[in-house]
Amino acid sequence: MFTEYGELSTELYELTKPVGFEIDGDIPFYLEQAKETTGLVLEAGVGTGRMLIPFLKAGVKMDGVDLSPFMLDRCRENLEKEKLVTDLFLQDLQQLDIPKKYDIIMMPTGSFALLPTREIMLNSLESFKKHLLPGGKIIIDLLLPRDFKKGESTTSVFSLTENSGIVFNSTSLEIDWEKQRTTELHRYEKWIDGKLTQTELSNFILSWYGIEEFTLVLEKLGFVNIQHIWDYNKETDKHDTLTFIAETEK
Ligand SMILES: C[S@@+](CC[C@H](N)C(=O)[O-])C[C@H]1O[C@@H](n2cnc3c(N)ncnc32)[C@H](O)[C@@H]1O
Q: What is the share, in percent, of the chain residues with pLDDT greater than 70?
C-alpha cells in the first residue's frame, strides 16, 4: 500500500529542495566539517544530491548511498548535468557493504530520523562504524517532535508545468511516546491536463532520541569524543536542530 521515497516523493523533493538548497544553514555547517578532512566522505541517505553536488564542487571527495532507486537516478542525472563523477551505492544503511573506508560519514537534516525502528537505527550506526577509518567521524542530525499536532492536515499545490502539478497532503496520525516516533500519512497526486495520473502514499515515520539516550547509544557502540551542537552553532536559542558528532577510536 505504501511507497517510501518513490517516484513522486523524489519529484517533489527535487522541486522543493533542489541541488544546493539550504535547510536552516545545513550546507555551510556540514561543508566546514567536511573540509576538515582531505580524505573520503560518505553521505548516508544522499537523496537527489542536494548536498553532495555543492560539496563535490567545493573539492570534497564524497560518495553517496541511498536505498531509493528513484532518488539515486535523480542524483545521477544531477551529477551528469554538472559533469561530476563519484560513486553512488544503492544499499540499505542497515547492511552497508561498501569496499571503502571513510573519514566522515554524515547524515544531515531529517534523514537519520527516517530510520523507523530502534533496531534499524542501531544496525545503521554499526554499519557506519564498520565503514569508518580509525579516528573517523559520524555527523548526524536528530529531530525532536516539537511541532507535531495529531490530526493536523495540510495540503499544498506545486506546479510542474503550465498544465501539470503535484498536490501534496500531509496528515499527522500518531505520536507514540513509548517507541519515540511520529507517523504522518503523506499523499502525493500528480495531475496532468485536469486528470489525476499518478498517486503515491507514504507511511512517514520520524523517530527521535534524547541527548543522554543517544550519547549512551553511541558510547555503547564504542564511539568516543561524543559531542552535540544546537542549530549548527548559530547564535540562537531556538534549539531546533541537534547535531551529534562522534569518533571511532584511533
Ligand atoms: C530526506 S531525504 C534527504 C536527502 C539528502 N540527504 C538531503 O539532505 O537532501 C532522506 C533520504 O534517506 C534515504 N533513506 C532513508 N532510509 C534509508 C536507509 N535505511 N538506507 C539508505 N537510505 C535511506 C531516502 O531514500 C532518502 O533519499
A: 100
Residue 193 Cα, ligand 1 centroid: separation in angstroms? 32
Check if 186 has its Cβ closer than 6 Å to any atom of ligand 1.
no
Section 197-208 average pLDDT: 97
CA–CA distance, 104 with 62 (Å, rounded to integer): 9
Beta carbon of 64 within 6 Å of any ligand 1 atom: no
Secondary structure element (H or E) that encloses residue 49, with its range: none
Write the residue with the smallest CA distance to atom 6 of ligand 1.
46
Please tell me the distance between residue 194's alpha carbon and the centre of ligand 1 in angstroms. Answer: 32
Does the pLDDT of residue 171 top 90, yes or no? yes
Q: Look at residues 136, 126, 129 and name the one whose alpha carbon lies nearest to residue 250.
A: 136
Statement: residue 237 has pLDDT above 80: no
Expressed as residue numbers, the domain containing 185 is 153-207
In a domain, 194, yes or no: yes
3-state secondary structure 187-201: EEEEEECCEEEEEEE
Residues 30 and 97 in one domain: yes
> ∠ CA 137-110-221 to the nearest 5 degrees?
35
Query: pLDDT tens across 30-51, in order?
Result: 999 999 999 999 999 999 999 9
Closest atom of ligand 1 to CA, residue 107 = 6
Q: Ligand 1, closest atom to CA 111?
A: 10
Same domain for 236 and 194: no
Residue spans of beta strands (DSSP E) within 45-86: 61-66
Question: Cβ(133) to ligand 1 under 6 A?
Answer: no
Distance 115 CA to ligand 1 centre (A): 9
Mean pLDDT of the chain, nearest integer? 96
User: Is 76 within the bounds of a domain?
Assistant: yes
The number of distinct structural domains making up the chain is 2
Is the model's pLDDT at 198 over the cut of 80?
yes
Q: What's the pLDDT score for residue 24?
A: 92
Q: Is 110 in the pocket of ligand 1 (CB under 6 A)?
A: yes
